[in-house]
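S1.2 Input.
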Amino acid sequence: MLRVGIVGLPNVGKSTLFNALTRSRKAEAANFPFCTIEPNVGVVTVPDPRLVNLAEIINSQKIIPAIIEVVDIAGLVKGASEGEGLGNQFLGHIREVDAIVHVVRCFDNENIHHVAGTLDPIRDIEIINTELILADMSSVQKRIERQAKAARTGDKVAKAEISLGEKLLPHLNSGAPASTAELNTEEKKILSSFYLLSAKPVLFAANIEEQDLSHLQDTSRPAVESVKKVEEYAMTHFGTSTVTISAQIESELAELAPEDAVEYLAGLGLQDSGVGLLIRKAYELLGLRTYFTYGPKETRAWTIRAGDKAPAAAGVIHSDFERGFIAAETMAYDDLNTLGSSAKCREAGKLRIEGKEYEVQDGDVLEFRFNV
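S1.3 Output.
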């Protein structure tokens, strides 16, 4: 299962957000730094209204959504790359995740301690980014030194790693994450073996308070101004997006029944939970896609990587399906939802038989033919 790590400075709302995402109280949320030491781990379902619609079409007894794992990692501080605030331990936890949700404090509340003393979301982002980059620079330098002897003997792998390392060091030294380095296909393959922290895909979560959530167009509000700064910085420096949330509200919503949560959001003038959007964005960030199987017993969402072909998608269900793959009966979700049944899709020519080279699309509804 792929993992998303929640990172940020202490007291920015990471543990509160984790509890909201996992609908639990596993993570202690307290008004002091390092209330989280060991990472909390939880499983999160990926919201997908298509799944519910499909289940209604076939009248399935059970719905099984796609899931990802979320890890609440303790707050990093300036100097983490040199061991400050148990930094080496916390950086190790980040190394174990596949993608990062960087929570940024965009609210000013004197009752909640800020480790830097003042509200400045860009400074806070740069503190975290700098620590990840410093740790990466150390890793790259050690890699170059380790491969030097092998490179002198003509080892092609060692030479390629040194070449990449020498290309990465000035890029990292400029303050840019490894994820934004301009690399060719071969260099990208080699980069994955470096396990760099700043090479991981990142999504920003701008955390604000309840009173600002329904006024996101009012740029005169300090919190909204902070959110806009984070959005611009995230896109400019990381080429990524930002989701605006109120971790405290999301934590409260997690305690409510679904219909009560909808009513609560409506009272704030909102249609969707920020957590729901955050989960979907994190899912996309990991390069994941969803296909569906459905029947009277269950309708289920299956997770694949973008670009996976039909046999690999079949293998997610069972290795026998991949080994003995023959073909996949394929319908697009939109067609099935519009026409109302597989029989009508067949009549309209919307049900296709796809072979081994078919690249499964997000939202495909599949039934596999196999023989083992």
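S1.4 Remarks. The longest strand covers residues 298-305.
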